Amino acid sequence: MSKLNQPNWDVIVIGGGPAGFFAAIRCAELNPELSVLILEKASQTLGKVLISGGGRCNVTHACFDPAQLINFYPRGGMELRGAFARFQPTDTVRWFEERGVRLKTEADNRMFPVTNSSETIAECLRGAAKNIGVQVIVGASVLGVKKNPQSGFKLEVRSEARDLHLNAKKLLVAAGSDSKSREIIKSLGHSIVEPVPSLFTFNIKDKRIDGLAGVSVENVTLKMDALTQRGPMLITHWGLSGPAVLRLSAWGARELYEKKYRAKLSVNWLGDISFEKALEVLTHSKEWKENVRKKVMGNPAFSQIPLRLWKQLTEFAGDKNWGDVSKAELRKLAQELSAGEFNIESKGQFKDEFVTCGGVNLKEVDFKTMQSRVVENLFFAGEVLDIDGLTGGFNFQSAWTTGWLAGSAMSTTDKNG
Ligand SMILES: Cc1cc2nc3c(=O)[nH]c(=O)nc-3n(C[C@H](O)[C@H](O)[C@H](O)COP(=O)(O)OP(=O)(O)OC[C@H]3O[C@@H](n4cnc5c(N)ncnc54)[C@H](O)[C@@H]3O)c2cc1C
After folding, report:
1. Between the CA of residue 314 and those of 306, 323, 325, what are the distances in Å?
2. Which atom, in ligand 1's list, is nearest to the CA of 395?
3. What is the gyration radius of the CA atoms in the chain, in angstroms?
4. Residue with the nearest Cα to atom 50 of ligand 1?
5. What does CATH list as the number for 3-197+355-410?
6. Structural domain spans, the chain
7. pTM exceeds 0.85, yes or no
8. Which of 178, 183, 379, 401 is the best mutation target for the ligand 1 pocket, counting ligand atoms within 8 Å of the beta carbon and taking the most?
9. Which residues, at least 6 apart from 277, have a Cβ–Cβ distance to it below 8 Å?
10. Which residues lie with the beta carbon below 6 Å from any ligand 1 atom?
11. 120-173 pLDDT per residue, tens
12. Which of 49, 50, 58, 214 has the fewest CB atoms within 10 Å distance of its CB?
């Protein structure tokens, strides 16, 4: 019998992404008696896993203290605190290891499969689901869900140009950032925090960085209104990128969206060196005897600034020697280096990872079980929730954790199940 001809299921999962797979596998492993079905509208499952981390899949992050881990989530950290106490990166590593997939930690604590291939992760999940009897149907799009009068749910599904109805005692929505699925969730009585992009680069046209694509600075401090981020930054063809920029974009995602991605950015190219300290170093450079006859543009006073960038940042002072720079120019230079102002003109794309913030209102979900507080036997996991992490494996970790919790809770057979 085709799986679609079987109308009644104990558990149906909407979405064959990492959160949906993790939940379905956990649920079936705990209770093999249950019939568990994943419905995936795309022609293959785990599409985002396959393209993630530049094809390598940054599975999680080597941060094993839940109290620390939550600081990497601009939204949802507080709610994930207890959830991580139950399933955190140590558990993710063990989970994959138990199924034959070893992970390695890179210098920046990101964790990848040792094979350096996202296929390894997708194959592991698909294999684990198959082994435990989870059924998967691809090309099956859930168009609507209705709560049954007694208990459970009726799903309207389109598959191979056929419309059909399936019944589920328990339903997990793990549909990622899919907009149509959000409408389904709303129709069940939930509220959705408006989704907006997180993790993006800044498009900036400015002659100080023009033609410097590929130049990076090890440690800058960025400020945008009340937000501050420190770390490496990369100049690109379109503006600025790199860890410091991506982190700022994530924490300021909503604010930047409201400002239509136009904002003032202050860049301290010297990391944590203040204006006063910078001025002191520059004054010393000016007074330094050997420097007096040397060009400002050709002789950076700070070794962390690459020469090409230094030339463009100091261009305003003209082709002067250090000895000829006025006090006012020194002050301007210190200002430029410690708090250069740039105009963000629009949002760029970070191709390695793209996430949305917004989704199911977290107040409406019980984070012990991932069950809806609004509709009994309805569960949520993954990016469909108003949770998003910084780049580095945090978004998958949230999918593994919430999926695992939902799967655990759905495996129990209660009076309604
Ligand atoms: C290019 C890229 C690279 C990334 N790299 C990383 C990384 O290296 N590390 C990291 O931590 N995060 C990464 N992310 C983020 C990560 O992929 C997501 O956070 C994660 O996939 C969310 O998992 P999910 O299961 O909640 O949703 P998804 O992976 O989006 O899966 C949801 C699934 O549900 C299906 N679906 C939706 N609606 C329906 C419906 N109505 N009926 C049937 N099916 C439906 C979708 O087709 C989809 O397959 C990356 C994202 C992108 C786009």
Report:
1. 12, 15, 11
2. 11
3. 26
4. 353
5. 3.50.50.60
6. 3-197+355-410, 200-349
7. yes
8. 178
9. none
10. 14-20, 39-42, 47-48, 51-53, 57-58, 141-142, 174-176, 178, 180-181, 352-355, 382-384, 393-396, 399
11. 999 999 999 999 999 999 999 999 999 998 889 999 999 988 899 999 999 999
12. 214
